[in-house]
């Protein structure tokens, strides 16, 4: 493919490719030299830069991969010769039912077509896919779509576009077609790794998922950390479960957990688990930022209450029951790690501090306050709090003094 220019001069200034890479055939480079690349985005970037440096007249390359994700059905990476780095886009669930998807080449490839080619320079060409008109307007002269087949038989998608006058020649198309098996293999490995990481984060939380992925998988392995513990629970959930259909209950819980997750994660906390209609989250305390981290936990609780009011206004407008909750906050040392049976483990926190946070949440329900904090939290935070007196706690011999932030009322008040 090389046409006489020095390939090194054709590489972007920040390219990770080396002179040794440039003398390799692209399929061999994928097999032998791309092992250190950790994302599809970087892989497509370096592959396209290599192809261009070796004379392939690429204008645009896109790669669509179906994926298993709670929010997305796939991801697309788009490389353009005018951009330093490719774009990466998440494709949300439901796209398969949209008119734009049905009018695209994707269903044809997914249904088994060996390839699709459209010579866009031909003025008589019927632009049977809307994307072709866009590409032609951008100067494209030739468009080729090819399937990427994974080892499980699932079909994915790659497209190649050029803007040279005569389009791709036979040799260039042969090179691109020969890349497909190796490219599919490399992308499948990357996607499986990414899928594992994403699913661990979705089901365990970001930090816990990372720890498990890094090898913290032995039963009983744990460490002691100091953290602010947030324990929250929906009020009146048992009665609501008895009165509402299952779909409404699921919708209610999804609304509630979505509201709680946003401020907790934005303030540096991590939700460790959803427990029926409740949740357990922690805010690890840094050695030099303990007060700020404890304050972040209280701020997250207050912000969740504000968001809950806003969501309830929408729910009420649509004739749905409002959501009220109770939340307990405490701080202390917890054991953070793996607990369970030899075949079923849970990455969580345990300890007296967790138990007290749970008891405070229950006490909040009894007292009619949405947020109740322990004395330890009250001493650490900068936000003003008011005392609610000393109250007996089940399992503790002495009553516990509790506090509540100012200006926070129950949802139903």
Could you describe the 3D structure shown?
The protein has 413 residues and is α+β, with helices and mostly antiparallel strands. It is built from 13 helices and 14 strands. Strands 7, 8, 9, 10, 11, 12, 13 and 14 form an eight-stranded mixed sheet that branches. A six-stranded antiparallel sheet has the order 3-2-1-6-5-4. A hairpin with a 2-residue loop joins strand 8 and strand 9. The longest helix has 35 residues, at 170-204. The model is unreliable at 1-8 (pLDDT under 50).
Quick overview of this protein structure:
The protein has helices at residues 19-22, 26-32, 40-53, 99-102, 106-110, 130-137, 170-204, 206-213, 237-243, 246-266, 290-317, 352-367, 375-380; strands at 60-66, 72-80, 87-92, 116-118, 142-149, 155-162, 222-234, 270-275, 278-284, 325-341, 344-350, 371-374, 385-391, 400-405.
């Amino acid at each position: 493919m090389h046409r006489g220019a020095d390939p090194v001069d054709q590489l972007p200034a920040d390219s990770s490719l080396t002179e040794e890479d440039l003398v390799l055939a692209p399929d061999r480079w994928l097999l032998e030299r791309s092992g250190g690349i950790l994302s599809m985005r970087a892989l497509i970037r370096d592959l396209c830069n290599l192809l261009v440096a070796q004379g392939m007249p690429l204008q645009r390359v896109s790669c669509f991969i179906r994926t298993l994700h709670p929010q997305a059905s796939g991801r697309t990476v788009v490389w353009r010769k005018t951009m330093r780095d490719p774009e990466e886009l998440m494709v949300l669930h439901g796209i398969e039912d949209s008119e734009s998807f049905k009018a695209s080449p994707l269903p044809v490839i997914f249904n088994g077509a060996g390839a699709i080619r459209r010579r866009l320079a031909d003025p008589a060409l019927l632009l049977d896919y809307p994307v072709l008109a866009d590409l032609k307007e951008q100067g494209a002269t030739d468009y080729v779509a090819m399937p990427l087949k994974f080892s499980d038989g699932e079909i994915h998608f790659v497209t190649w576009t050029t803007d040279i006058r005569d389009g791709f020649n036979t040799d260039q198309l042969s090179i691109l077609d020969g890349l497909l098996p190796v490219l599919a293999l490399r992308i499948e490995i990357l996607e499986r790794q990414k899928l594992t990481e994403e699913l661990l984060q979705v089901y365990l939380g970001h930090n816990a998922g990372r720890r498990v992925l890094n090898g913290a998988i032995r039963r009983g392995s744990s460490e002691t950390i100091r953290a602010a513990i947030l324990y929250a629970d929906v009020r009146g959930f048992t009665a609501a479960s008895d009165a509402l259909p299952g779909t409404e209950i699921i919708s209610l819980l999804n609304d509630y957990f979505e509201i709680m997750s946003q401020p907790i994660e934005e303030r540096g906390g991590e939700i460790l688990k959803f427990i029926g209609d409740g949740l357990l989250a922690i805010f690890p305390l840094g050695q030099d930022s303990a007060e700020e981290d404890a304050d972040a936990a209280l701020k997250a609780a207050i912000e969740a209450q504000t968001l809950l009011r806003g969501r309830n206004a929408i729910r009420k407008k649509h004739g749905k029951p409002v959501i009220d909750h109770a939340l307990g906050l405490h701080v202390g040392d917890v054991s953070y790690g793996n607990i369970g049976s030899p075949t079923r483990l849970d990455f969580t926190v345990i300890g007296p501090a967790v138990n007290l946070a749970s008891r405070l949440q229950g006490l909040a329900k009894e007292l009619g306050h949405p947020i109740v904090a322990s004395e330890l939290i009250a001493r650490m935070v900068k936000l003003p709090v008011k005392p609610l007196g000393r109250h007996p706690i089940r399992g503790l011999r002495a009553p516990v003094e509790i506090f509540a932030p100012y200006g926070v009322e129950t949802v139903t008040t």
